[in-house]
Amino acid sequence: MNNLYLLRGKIRFLGILSLLLCLSFTSFGQAQTVSGVVVSAPDNEPVPGALVSIKGTQNGTVTDIDGAFSLQAAPGSILVVSFVGFVTQEVAVTANQSPLSISLEYSTSDLSEVVVVGYGSQVKREVTGAVQTVSEGELKDMPVSSVAQKLQGRMAGVQINQTTGKPGQGMNVRIRGQLSVSGGSQPLYVVDGFPITGDINQINPDEIQDITVLKDAASTSLYGSRAANGVVLITTKKGKAGQTNVSLNVYTGFQSVPENGRLEMMNAEEFATFKKEYYEAAGQAVPDIFQNPSEYRNNTNDWYDAMLRNAPISSYNLTVTSNKEKVNTAVIAGIFDQDGVVVGSDYKRFSLRMNTDYQLSDKVNIGVNLAPNYVVDNTPRTDGTRGTGILFNALHTWPIMPIYDENGELTSFNQLPASTGNIYAYPNWVRSAEEITNETREVNILANTYVEWKPIQGLSLKSTFNAEINQSKYFWFNPSTATANINVAIPTVAVSIRDHYNSLSWLNENIATYTKAINDHNFQFLLGFSNQRFRAESTRVQADTYADDRIPTIQGAININRGGTNSGVGEWSLTSLFSRLTYNYQGKYLFTASVRGDGSSRFGEDNRWGVFPSTSVGWVMSDEGFLNTSSTVSFAKLRASYGVTGNNNIGNYTQYALVNNTINAVFGDQVVPGAGVTSLNNSNLGWETTSQLDVGFELGFWDDRVLFTYDYYTKNTTNLLYAVQIPQESGFTNYNDNIGEIHFWGHEFSINTVNTTGAFRWTTNANLSINRNKVLELADGIDRVYGTYHITQVGQPFGQFYGLKKLGNYMNAEDLASSPIIPGRSTVGSIKLEDVNGDGVITYGGDNDDRTIIGNPFPDFTYGLINNFSYRGFDASITINGSQGNQLYMRHLYSTANLDGVFNMVEKVSRRFKSPEDPGDGIFGTSTGGGNVTGVERDWNNSNFVWDASFLTIRNITLGYTFSNISKSLKSARVYLSGQNMWIFTKYWGGSNPEVSMQDNGNGDGGNLSPGVDLAAYPVPRTITIGANINF
Amino acid sequence: MLAIAAVGIMCSSCDDFLTVVPETQLSSATFFKTEADFEQAVNAAYAPLRSIVNDRAYRLAEMHSDNTYYGRNVLFGAVDPQEDLADFSVVESNGVTANDNILQQYRLDYLIISRTNQILALIDEADIDQAVKDNVKGQALYLRAYAYFELARYFGSVPLHLTPVATREEAALPLSSEDEVYAQIISDLVTAVPLLPPKSQQQPGRVTSGAARTLLANVYVNRERWSDAETILTPVVTSGEYMLMASYEMAFSDNASNKNNAESVFEVQFLEGSAGLNGNFFYQMLPRPLLADELAPLTGTINPQPVDGEGNNIPTPDIIAAYEDGDEREDASIGYVFLSSSFRDEKTYPYIKKYAKHHSQHNNTGTNFPIYRYSEVLLFMAEILNEQGKDGEARNYLNQVRDRAGLGPVSSGGAELAEAIFRERRVELAFENKRWFDIQRKDKIEEIIVPYGQRIVANPLDYYYPPIEGAVPRPQVFTNLSKFYPLPAAESDLSPYF
Predict the structure, then answer these.
(1) How far is residue A823's CA from residue A804's CA, in Å, rounded to a whole number?
(2) Please, which residues have CB within 8 angstroms of residue A987's CB and are 6 or more apart in sequence?
């Protein structure tokens, strides 16, 4: 509680400060009425909604629909006229001022834009933190379901990977490389001021006006214990002042998986050839079916291809906005309909958003945003390890096994006699995809309401109430005719799972903002408190052994599966106090300080409050005398920030010692309840803390036609939540504690240029990010954490690939005799590994074996390059992004290159080691010797699994043409052609998606400790669409 | 100022707002109060026994002897941890091993110990009915003693936890000597015997006074305290609570019936179905790969599925030869199954038939697993009495067991009778995880295991190796003949004491 008192003290001090500011007052001159009109410079069109204010005061007005304004201003005062997209202009007021005609130049840079920051907004040139904004116009054409896909490659320091192509899923967003052992790494998403708990993938991208990413601690620390992974602020659409707009955006097209880039498996003839050679090399009789491989020429059953199809995608959005007579509304209705490129998968979203603000009086505004949507997603369990992920299963199914029978029907399952070496039953995976239901139906409702009262000039008191409701129903039904698992005979046991989930998150926030200018000193003071609470409930019922596949009801099953039937509750609450002081002198010397206190139900009862302070400074050097005469340098700003943020993704009840009362026992035929203590309590458990220093500068040249931004950051994450392993002689597996330290650092560069102006306009936006991390400390006595294919070790970066280092294959008897070997397992042609510990033999397992770090899933750098062109009515854009130096662990090789010939194999196995005279291309070793020999290459993690996955992707190409001034009722119409994921340039050969990262259970985002594993996930399609934007 | 005032008001209710307790699980602070709490706690202490007998004990105490071996399946690569147990080649470095079976057995025993420690630390002070208190306490003491008895026989010296662990610092303890561990086991059981009701008054399947006496007798037998053993075990024979079933086959639990029968002293309880209380040890003990059609007659399920991988616990030619002619137990214990997918020329394999009971769902059985049967009580009595020179009484007990198996009486005495009892235990208790402990306590490792290993290396085809290149006994077989298993490496990594 000490922290709380400290916080209260600090707030009281800041309160007194603001009170003092209140008492001072500005002087008023001899005011006169000044009127005028604001027009745009090249075309003399009126500019409605432009802000006309008197410099150094809070007095001002907004232009009407004709661009006209009128206000009281004293002679000698200066009018500042600004509007998004134009260069801000200053006009001096003379005595007896005649009506003004102010023409605004289009801005070539976005420095004058107002950007949304935490709990407010700021003019971009005055921002002192590392923030980046992308607005609607830059995102509009991409034919994808989620906004995260649209952001790929756009922002320095924000790495976005699509780990799976499943419709509506799989976006992994990581800001400034942030990681944690167990606390999650996804940023906090804030929609219209409301930190949401759900998934942004479900939000219709057409509802979004702009997105701001807060990267440094000074920008994020007002979000306190949830801000360490960065914060993404999403603002939804509003009407433009004085206008009513109706627009229709539609597109339709199809998706496909290009042949080029798929994992190349053996065709039937190559497979039969392998089998023949395999038996011959082992001195065994060749089964009849492999005697003559050429029989299979041009008769391959391509199981992977059979899983894929060309699939349609379409989207329809109708947007109506109006901002007139004190009512500002925006209504967006959307339908998104995507069939997946894997058979049996589809995703549909029906969404509506209604945003309304009412100006009740000069002093009171209220507003309501309401956004319901309905999502239906039916996607087979495509992703996962061998045996359970049906795409992986399809890849390694024998290509001589028929997909269709002689009647053209899908086969049910394939199993050849054991004499052929076939040891598994292979179900028909196309049936698995088509017949197994795996459907989620979701209703999401996001609501924001507020009332704002401005009792006196400069003071705003605002209360908001927000709610997020999610209802989802999951239904899995595996009929007796299909299975997703290998080696299951058909008919199988029909199984159903129903999972009903609902959650409610609500937030009440109360914020006072006071803005004051005294001469050239501009202050803004903010004080707020909030309460948020979340509760989720779920009910799951699993039933099996159905009498009839056509009746998948619960009562239609013979068994209710006790272990798969349960209900759950998850709940947390958060109380916060926060405050910020922003000050600048002449818009030149900038200063911000903020502090937030979070009390969280998740923290241990003896450590309930966390305090998260920050400060930042900026200096607009170009306003100084020595620079403002320069014609080359039009803008220069230096800024620095430091702050502390937290990560509270530590689980809802981790602090408690829990008693599990489902450890049941049976005596005779009677089941009795059992209960045992399953965890230890830690009443001091707390959040992870990240302290971050950011230094950056922004430089504009030639009237900001070239704008360059650079940031360096260094941050340390400490008190990582970690379940410290303890000896299980205690009866417990671990003790939840805050331990360890990780250092992160990196550089971010971005450059925006206007290359040509005039009729042919060409702009470029390029960015490059370098992120590094290093583990400085884990727990006492623990210097490493092993993953299945990874190690996280003190002194090294997180999640490195770990295994034996392959040197080649033993080329001949002499090589074998003179090299370290695995006694009893190494032979001529088998994998040759490095004896790292120098003990003369190759060992695997334990802390002192020959394993070492064999690869790095993290890139050396990532980059994006976006070019936009326009010429008269034509426009074009091309978006490129890439990643350099990252590697993937091609995990599927343990089956797709199983040298025992149990499965179908990658085509490269044809060029394996066959004899000292025919050693192949060195990638795969000999197939002889049985599992004792081949098992080493397959079962012992080694560098043969690790491959470079650097890539450059032509993410999007769009070509459009706009017809303007068509008729009175039709303002403009644009038609365009857009292609998404057009080409991927990569040396990676393990599959078509070099961004993949998968856990064995098929969940995307391989987890922080085990990133970059390729288990043949759902491919990311190429999408080609035509679309139209019509404005009425 | 308004905001500050509001903050003050708000924070008076902060603690309530911020206290969110789990609703789907209880917290230890509120548990251990009522009779039901303690009963549930002791029920949970039984649970690890299911995993022990289903997954581990047969590998550590049966396949680690001359009774069973694995069926090598080259298509599935090597299954080193199991093979190392059967091959007496457990990899040991610095006194510890990475063998997962050893690790899991160790952890399961300590799970029983920690759950019973929670009960024993609090039950004396609990305000609950005395009869319930005695019964729960007796069961907890028995289960703790049983777990420590397993640890003492597997490892010798182990950490001796007798109170619940509450902090990270208390998690590890130094090793206690074998003698100290045995002293604790005996003290727990001596306390437990009078607290527990006899079988006729206890819920079937729970620990009884007869079970506690039998376990304590077994401990005394291991310690060669023969007269103590006689004193504690004789009331079991005279109690009238137990008898031999009419046939050997009937001594074993069926899938859903014949559980905890008159011969059963203590058995681990399973229940077929989807409640997670089922076993599948019968499947683990099958030779493989078996097609669904080949499996179906053994299991009688409606949904047989093929089973692959490497089979464990396959009866050796040695145990098959150990049955005397006419011994009805051979046919009741061992069956034969044809594996069409086998790479061996001889595609018929033996399997453990005494646990092959028809059930309905694939890989889901309700058959109980015996820990102590009355026939073992009789064999203990025979051994205890013979060791004290009372060979007449001893023969009487031995011959009761032989008679039920359809065999004639034994008439020898002294060392010869001791050897006959040892042989009788092998066949009577085959596949009940007794063989390794018998060899261990009789110091017969050199005498029995060494020649057994030589037979495997000389005749791999007889021990289920296929005639395929690379499929021969590995070079390291029968190189680690220690009396105790090394302690688990994963625990050693976390403990400062070993």
Answers:
(1) 16
(2) A947, A948, A950
Q: Is the pLDDT of residue A23 over 50?
A: no
In a domain, A714, yes or no: no
Structure tokens at B332: 């009741």
**Which residue type is seen at B443?**
D
Opening angle at CA A373, ends A367 and A378, nearest 5:
165
Whether the CB-CB separation of B472 and B460 falls below 8 Å is answered with: yes
Per-residue DSSP letter, B166: -
Instruction: Decide: helix, strand or coil at residue A225.
Output: helix
In a domain, A838, yes or no: yes
Whether the Cβ atoms of residue B364 and residue B280 lie closer than 8 Å to each other? yes
Of B23, B27, B114, the CB nearest to A659: B27
Is pLDDT above 70 for B346? yes
Parallel/antiparallel/unpaired status of strands A188-191 and A68-73:
unpaired
Which of A269, A322, A264, A353 is CA-nearest to residue A49? A322
Provide the whole-model pTM: 0.82
* Domain assignment present for A85: yes
Alpha-carbon distance A649 to A643, whole Å?
A: 19
- The mean pLDDT value for A676-681 works out to 89
> Contact B78/A932, CB-based, under 8 Å?
yes
Say if the Cβ atoms of B23 and A569 lie within 8 Å: yes
User: Distances in Å between the alpha carbon of A61 and those of A384, A461, A575, B184, B210?
Assistant: 59, 20, 37, 88, 95
**Does the CB of A488 have a partner CB in chain B at under 8 Å?**
yes
Percent of chain A with pLDDT over 90: 59
Contacts of A563 in chain B (CB under 8 A): 274-276
Domain boundary among A876, A907, A940: A940
Q: Tens digits of per-residue pLDDT, B58-106?
A: 999 999 999 999 998 876 666 788 999 999 999 887 789 989 999 999 9
The total domain count for chain A is 3
Model confidence at A1, pLDDT cuts 50, 70, 90, reads very low
Helix (H) or strand (E) holding A506: strand A495-518
Nearest C-alpha in B relative to A1: B15
Encoded tokens for A999: 């856990």
Answer with the one of A107, A138, A156 that is the final residue of a domain. Answer: A107
Residues with Cβ within 8 Å of residue A242, at least 6 apart in sequence: A48, A49, A63, A64, A65, A323, A324
Q: Residue B292 is nearest to which of A421, A489, A567, comparing CB atoms? A: A489
User: What sign results for the dihedral spanned by CA atoms B334, B337, B342, B347?
Assistant: positive
For the packed helices B100-122 and B130-155, what is the interaxial angle rounded to 10 degrees?
150
Q: Which helix (H) or strand (E) holds A137?
A: helix A136-139
CB contact under 8 A, B31 and A677: yes
Could you identify the residue written with the tokens 């903010």?
A526
Cis peptide before B289 (omega within 30 of 0): yes
Q: Which two tokens stand for residue A254?
A: 């199809």
Asked if B41 and A735 come within 8 Å (Cβ–Cβ), the reply is no
Among candidates B18, B41, B340 on the partner chain, residue whose Cβ is nearest the Cβ of A608: B18
Sorted by where each begins, the domain ranges of chain B are 281-367
Tell me, what's the pLDDT at A971? 82
Euclidean distance between CA atoms A643 and A714, whole angstroms: 11
- Residue A539 near residue A502 (C-beta atoms within 8 A): no
Q: What is the spatial distance between Cα B263 and Cα B249, in angstroms, rounded to a whole number?
A: 12
Q: Is B22's CB within 8 Å of A658's CB?
A: yes
The domain containing residue A833 runs over which residues? 805-847+897-940
Least confident interval from A582-591, A925-934, B448-457: A925-934
How many whole angstroms separate alpha carbon A390 and alpha carbon A401? 16
Categorise residue A556: left if φ over 0, alpha if ψ from -120 to 50, beta otherwise: alpha
Q: Assess if residue A959 is contained within a domain.
A: no
Instruction: Report strand pairing: A32-40 vs A100-104.
Output: parallel
